Amino acid sequence: MALLEIEGLSIGYGTRNGLLRAVEDVSFTLEAGGSLGLVGESGCGKTTLGMALMGLLPPNGKIMAGKILFEGQDLKESTEEQWRKIRWRKISMIFQAAMNALNPVHRVGDQIAEAISTHRPEMPEREIMERVAELYRLVGIPVERIKDYPHQYSGGMRQRAIIAMALACNPRLIIADEPTTALDVIVQDQILKEIKKLQEKLGLSIIFISHDISIVAEVCEDIGVMYAGQLVEWGPKEAVFENPVHPYTKALLASYPTLMGERERLRPIPGEPPNLVSPPPGCRFCDRCPSAGKSCKSQAPVWAQVGPRHKALCNACS
Amino acid sequence: MEVTGEHIVEFEGVTKIYKSKASLFSRSSEEVVALRDLTLNIRKGEIFGLVGESGSGKTTAGRLLVKLEEPTEGVIKLDGTDITKLKGGRLKEFRRNVQMIFQDPYQSLNPQVSIFEAVCEPLVIHGIGNSGNRKEMVEEMLALVGLSPPEDFLARYPHQLSGGQRQRVAIARAMILKPTMVVADEPTSMLDASISAQIFNILLDMRERFQVSILFITHSLAAARYLCDRLGVIYKGSLMELGPSGVIIAEPRHPYTQALIDALPKFGQCGSVFHYGTLLAEERRGIEDGEGKGTKEFCPFFPRCRPARAEKCANAMPRLENLSPGHAIRCFFPARPSLQVETAGSSKCYYGI
After folding, report:
1. Distant-in-sequence, close-in-space partners of B202: CB < 8 Å, separation ≥ 6
2. C-alpha distances in Å from residue B71, one per residue of A302, B45, B242
3. Please, which residues 194-253 of chain B have a Cβ atom closer than 8 Å to chain A?
4. A42 interface with B at CB cutoff 8 Å
5. What's the order of all strands across the beta sheet hosting A222-227?
6. Which one of A74, A104, A246, B116 has the largest count of C-beta atoms within 10 Å of its C-beta?
7. How many beta-carbon pairs below 8 A join chains A and B?
8. Which residues of A touch B346 (CB under 8 A)?
9. In this structure, are B207 and B321 located in the same domain?
10. Residue B193 is assigned to a structural domain of this protein
């Protein structure tokens, strides 16, 4: 049984202009120990999806349809009480903006200890502090820095502390939402390698959300490409990069430069994504698609299976 | 267009020191050297990239060039004139010729000002055109930055635009005065990759059409390689390597430049990409806090540099010296070119920007 199975998940936000369909009919599976990178431009629904997996949708957000099966249990049906037992213990999150996620007036070690004691009230304090020290060693922060305050940490160390916090209760699934934005290239590289190392060492499953393909590629085995609320291509990293099928994936890949060889002009995608309050009836990418056929505009696309574990949501692709 | 040999900008020994005031928590004031003895030229029609991490001084250099700050020491020249001494009419002329595009288009545009007013304002300030033809000039510029049809955008406000559209407005606002020099400070760090690529292409088009020179400030060597003719790599306020962008990327000679290239996120067929491995996993401790703090001279990269040799690198600041015409580095022990093994074959390896 897969650790996580998402089936036909749709999420909407109530807005003044009507229902905004942020996520529509998304399905994928994630095995225990697997890693999935969700990429797409801002507004494609990737963060909404991550928030739904943590039971943290804002008040105007609602799961309209579909299932989130985690260890066989549908999380959609969970009450707030049940969510409290799942969050951090089973599914945890590495937040973006490491600079702001820690409370500046508390020692970093105490904040991690608090995360543990909240979920394990029975644990004696000495054991908790031992666990914090263990977590520090795990994520590569010197243990003597436990008593420091956040401002005494560098940006990279703060992000490591956030990772330690996410690992505190031994979760099975970690959702990392742009965990390296605002970090410098070198620190970013170190954090990505750390996440990958921990994932392999602890057998964690990970969903890594970013707008930047090059970043998810450093960590993940599978890639899911999202566009305008829909998953449009899904498959192993190598297949998606070497043999992209969906025109949107192809266009996205063409926005990244190489370092060697001729300097080729980048080919950015023209136009803007559609309005998700009243999305077009057919393919949502069709207005920007170089290979759109006549029926694309009116006919909703269906999944084309292009490899054993590689599929694309496109009528013109198969 | 052709990049001429003539210089439009010259930084000569420019140093910028910020002094922090004594506060409740620290009695003594502290000095932060943001930029140290920067000497470089930007040629007419050139896109020059200044690459570095946060706190490297790259933004300070840009702010000095547009006169948002004044240097503590040194001279900055635009077209041969020292800009630090400009006053009155000459200063206003300078303000017209040198423009800036800021990092965050969510903050650099006034939310209460329509797109037309925002792009038109510089014309009004400098008394260019009249109420009749300004609208035409604004529309023309909006079309050039890809906001078309321009009439649709005139009456809109920033909150009605996407991040990429806002940055186009910021570019239009900078370009409407036909400046000779533009400073673009990480103009795409808030934007998605495909939008970044659009902005880069607009900057290339602007250079082509208006022969404007651009100082492009970035943390990404991959972005700099795409856009720039020459690059300067800056670390903790000091210029570490300087040269044509193709040379710096293919044959970096400074261990810090090499570490930056190693750290670039990439995807595709990257198996054959050479890894320099010049960054120490753990910093050497002690040198910055040890004896004689603040007075001792040493290479700023020494604490993180694997090939460094303590007897030399920890005791003196290397000078920026030419390796070949146009390619200079600040290092006592430049990597031999022969060390740069086969990096080709990676033309299907793509880099984050």
Report:
1. B145, B146, B168, B171
2. 61, 25, 21
3. 194-198, 200-201, 204, 219-223, 225-226, 249-250
4. yes
5. A91-94, A173-177, A205-210, A35-39, A222-227, A230-236, A310-313, A303-307
6. A246
7. 121
8. 258-260
9. no
10. yes
> What CATH number does residue B97 fall under?
3.40.50.300
Q: Is residue B56 part of a domain?
A: yes
User: What span, in angstroms and rounded, lies between the C-alpha atoms of A42 and B163?
Assistant: 10
Residues 6+ apart with CB under 8 A from A197: none
CB-CB under 8 Å, B263 with A41: no
Instruction: Indicate whether B82 and B166 sit together in one domain.
Output: yes
Interatomic CA distance for residues B85 and B93, integer angstroms:
13
How many domains is chain B partitioned into structurally? Answer: 2
Q: What's the domain range around B96?
A: 7-20+27-228
Per-residue pLDDT tens listing for chain A (318 residues): 799 999 999 999 999 999 999 999 999 999 999 999 999 998 899 999 999 999 999 999 999 999 999 999 999 989 999 998 899 899 999 977 666 788 999 999 999 999 899 988 999 999 999 999 999 999 999 999 999 999 999 888 999 999 999 999 999 999 999 988 878 899 999 999 999 999 999 999 999 999 999 999 999 999 999 999 999 999 999 999 999 999 999 999 999 998 887 788 898 888 888 999 999 899 999 999 988 888 899 999 999 999 999 999 999 886
B241 is a domain residue = no
B105 & B61 share domain: yes
Q: Is residue B328 part of a domain?
A: yes
**A242 and B353 in contact by Cβ < 8 A?**
no
Cβ–Cβ below 8 Å for A41 and B346: no
Contacts of B204 in chain A (CB under 8 A): 265
